UniProtKB/TrEMBL annotation:
It comes from Chamaesiphon minutus (strain ATCC 27169 / PCC 6605). SUPFAM superfamilies: beta-Roll, Metallo-dependent phosphatases, Purple acid phosphatase, N-terminal domain. Gene3D superfamilies: 2.160.20.160, 3.60.21.10, Purple acid phosphatase-like, N-terminal. It comes from the Bacteria. GO terms for molecular function: acid phosphatase activity; metal ion binding. This is Calcineurin-like phosphoesterase. InterPro entries: Calcineurin-like_PHP, Metallo-depent_PP-like, PAPs-like, Purple_acid_Pase-like_N, Serralysin-like_metalloprot_C. PANTHER family: ACID PHOSPHATASE RELATED, PURPLE ACID PHOSPHATASE. Residues 302-339 are annotated as: Disordered. The lineage of its organism: Bacteria, Bacillati, Cyanobacteriota, Cyanophyceae, Gomontiellales. Keywords: Signal. The keyword DNA damage does not apply. The keyword Transcription does not apply. Residues 191-433 form the Calcineurin-like phosphoesterase domain.
């Protein structure tokens, strides 16, 4: 008999190694041996067996009986944990490993993560709400009716063969058929598809088990994932998140206490912490709750959405002296809490110390922001996972103050949306409502937003969209204005009579998962990868007696492809990937010898404002590229205005070249531009982190709040206005300031408190820094501070 209570399973992948964890029934140390690329000899690790008493069966679990199950589902009651952190390996390589435990051995393989700069493809699966338990072996879940294809008829819920075979749920207009597979078989078949796709890792945003405090639920989860049913987690790592069910004691107290004094939520979380060891997050008390994993160019941030503060509940609304409740599609705010089942005070009274508030200003909130900043600076492709879907047309889609609130709504997590959009998050993956849904959230309607998925279809409920009443004959509530697709209402059930029996041919709600594939893709400069989101369902094929013959991997008609820029941001374009790529390809625009007006995306314009090359020729011309589509890639245009007095209004990454004439360049809201005036007296209005060359003539440079520009006046008497009614956030560098010819100017000097007496000139090596209030406004290269005098009006102008 094997000594493995739970087979070795993988966690915390990195480019140098991985963590291997397993549980045994005996207090015997074990050996982990790793062989593979770059190892001249096997790596051998010894594991120490550590008793995990929190995993022992309770009296209630030992006495439990389940109708329809004859054999005991309980295992040996000894739980010894083994964990080994494997390190020192090469990126993106496959390694063999063997665990020797007494007389038992286990063999498998794992693959290290690639480096962020050297990778070929990445595939991961996202699925939640498996909610495993032994009862799932005999439970056929309610199968709420969704969209039915024209000409199709679903079997009735009273006397059809389907109803007789699998049963029904509810009564009257709320009665519905049950699904054709038990929860256990549905999850098994779903995982068989997942395992056949050999993912690099698995995201599970919560509700792994039907009660975190219920040990048979955990046993069942690992039977599926690292045990007798299958052992996929022995080959690919899991990145889990806490769900509401992990905060539930089930037989052992539920959301309260049991007969032995256990507090269900703490008991459940204690078991979760025993099974999973996430990377550190800087707050030891919150470890495992939220964490970061980098897998090559991908960053996954896992959050804990279990507890928001201040605590809230439905009973706080609608009573005398209380705020009113809302109904229908009304929304007055996201609220602060995702559950009304227990409070922090209750939790901590039973010794709990690990609750992590997620609201603005909390430790978790600040951690998320710092990780997003770091990941964006490194050009990573960012994914977020947590349990409670913030945008949902399902059961848990309404805030606490709504008349149809479940008391567990995910709307408080909407507070993160602006942060996620700011840092270019590719997608947010959640569960909770036990449905398949995709939303695209662009609250300010600027064309840049975030994709949200509810992937709660692992192996438990198969819910549909919420309705205004309890019956299935009532209208849909349609609470989620950002919803783009649901399996419930966009994958119509197609029924046909086959050999005299109504059979589902295609469509409908089924157990499934989201497959995400990331591949290098560089059709034009600035695009480096593409992400394909594929909603997969496990479709059951039944015989004439409705017995399961097999299941097929099928794909819902909602595959989505996003392009990724060289900064790691995704491009959310309604045009689709092919049309978007076409938009980014070089576009040649030639104007006339006369006075021309070229505005990107104006009616009849040949310019689209992205990667255009624009020639205006002679005449007094105006070019404006700022009206390009709101995509992650902006600008990259080349503008050549020719002779005449021209105006160039540029956006990010543009290059604009003047010629003869007095030209104006407006880059106030742009960054990373390159501007060249050529001959003539040119004027530059500047944004951030650009370069501007005046050329011949008396040129004027006005810097804005951004700063960080590099300026060159060229020949002629030039004016450098280094502050204009506000101070730049970063110093601008002037590379060719000519004493006695050029001048430094400050607009709004009096309101800023700047004068000849408050300006400081600091020598920095061979350069001079112009400082006000301890902040450098400009750096003059090759200039000695002693050669400048702020009170000299031929050098400084305070306007």
């Amino acid at each position: 008999m094997t000594e493995f209570r739970v087979n070795p399973y993988l966690q915390n992948p990195s480019s140098k190694g991985i963590n291997v964890t397993w549980f045994t029934t005996k207090d015997v140390d074990a050996t982990l041996t790793v062989t593979g690329p770059g190892l001249s000899k096997p790596l051998v690790f010894q594991s120490d067996a550590t008793l995990a008493p929190v995993l022992a069966y309770t009296t209630a679990e030992q006495k439990q009986s389940i109708a329809g199950i004859k054999d005991s589902w309980l295992l040996d009651n000894n739980n010894y944990k083994h964990t080994v952190a494997v390190d020192g390996l090469q990126p993106g390589k496959t390694y063999n490993y063997t665990v020797t435990q007494g007389s038992s051995t286990f063999n498998s393989t794992f693959e290290t993560a690639p480096s962020a700069t050297d990778w070929s493809s990445i595939r991961f699966i996202a699925m939640s709400d498996s909610e495993t338990e032994p009862l799932g072996r005999v439970t056929y879940r309610e199968w709420q009716p969704g969209l039915i294809a024209e000409g199709s008829t679903r079997p009735n819920s009273t006397d059809s063969n389907w109803a007789k075979k699998f049963g029904t749920n509810g009564t009257g207009t709320a009665q519905t058929l049950r699904y054709a597979l038990t929860e256990t078989v549905g999850y098994q078949e779903n995982l068989e598809i997942v395992n056949s796709r050999t993912p690099d890792f698995l995201l599970m945003p919560g509700d792994l088990v039907q009660g975190g405090g219920y040990q048979p639920g955990w046993d069942e989860f690992f039977r599926h994932n690292a045990g007798e049913y299958a052992s996929g987690l022995s080959k690919y790592p899991i990145l889990p998140a806490l769900g509401n069910w992990e905060n539930f004691g089930a037989l052992n107290g539920g959301y309260g206490t049991d007969a032995d004094g256990r507090f269900g939520p703490k008991f459940g979380r204690d078991k979760y912490h025993t099974y999973f060891d996430a990377p550190e997050n800087g707050t030891p008390a919150h470890r495992d709750n939220y964490y970061r994993v980098d897998y090559g160019p991908v960053t996954v941030l896992t959050l804990d959405s279990s507890n928001g503060e201040p605590d809230d509940r439905r009973s706080n609304y609608g009573g005398a002296g209380q705020p009113p409740k809302v109904s229908g599609t009304d929304f007055t705010g996201p609220g602060t809490d995702t559950q009304e089942n227990y409070t922090r005070a209750q939790y901590e009274s039973f010794g709990g110390t690990d609750l992590a508030d997620f609201n603005p200003g909390s430790i978790q909130w600040n951690w998320v922001k710092s990780q997003l900043q770091d990941a964006r600076n490194k050009g990573q492709i960012i994914f977020i996972q947590y349990h409670h879907a913030p945008y949902s047309d399902g059961e848990h889609g309404q805030p606490m103050n709504h008349t149809q609130s479940s008391g567990q709504g995910g709307t408080p997590l909407r507070q993160y949306q602006s942060m996620f959009e700011e840092y270019g998050v590719a997608a947010v993956l959640s569960g909770h409502s036990e449905m398949f849904e995709r939303s695209f959230v662009d609250e300010n309607r600027d064309g840049i937003g975030v994709n949200y998925y509810d992937v709660g279809v692992s192996g438990d409920g198969l819910r549909g969209e919420k309705r205004t009443g309890s019956g299935f004959d009532t209208p849909l509530l349609n609470y989620n204005q950002y919803s783009q697709w649901t399996a419930d209402q966009n994958a119509a059930e197609v029924w046909k009579v086959v050999n005299g029996v109504p059979q589902l041919i295609d469509g409908g709600k089924h157990y499934g998962h989201l497959e995400v594939n990331i591949e290098p893709f560089s059709p034009v400069p600035g695009i480096v990868a593409k992400i394909q989101f594929t909603p997969v369902y496990s479709f059951p094929i039944l015989d004439a007696n409705y017995n399961l013959v097999t299941t097929e991997r099928r794909v819902y008609n909602d595959e989505t492809i996003l392009l990724v820029t060289d900064t790691g941001r995704v491009i959310n374009s309604s045009l689709g990937p092919d049309a978007t790529v076409a938009l980014f390809k070089e576009n040649l625009v030639a104007a006339t010898p006369g006075n021309d007006l070229v505005i990107a995306n104006a009616p009849g314009s040949k310019a689209d404002g992205i990667n255009d090359t624009i020639f205006t020729g002679a005449g007094n011309d105006e070019v404006d590229t700022t009206l390009s589509r709101s995509l992650a890639i902006k600008g990259h245009n080349r503008i050549l205005t020719g002779s005449g007095n021209d105006v160039s209004i540029v956006t990010d990454n543009d290059r604009s070249f003047g010629s003869t004439g007095d030209d104006i360049f407006e880059a106030n809201d742009a960054k990373n531009y390159r501007l060249s005036g050529g001959d003539g007296n040119d004027t530059f209005y500047l944004g951030a982190s650009g370069r501007a060359l005046g050329g011949d003539g008396a040129d004027k440079f006005f810097v804005g709040a951004g700063g960080g520009n590099i300026l060159s006046g060229g020949a002629g008497a030039d004016q450098f206005w280094i502050a204009n009614a506000e101070l730049p956030s970063a110093a601008n560098t002037i590379v060719d300031f000519q004493i006695g010819t050029d001048v430094i100017g400050i607009q709004g000097a009096a309101s800023l408190g700047i004068s000849a007496s408050t300006i400081k000139l600091n020598q920095v090596g061979a350069d001079t820094s112009i400082v006000f209030g301890g902040k450098s406004l400009a750096l003059l290269t090759g200039i000695q501070a002693s050669s400048l005098t702020p009170g000299n009006s031929s050098q400084f102008v305070f306007a």
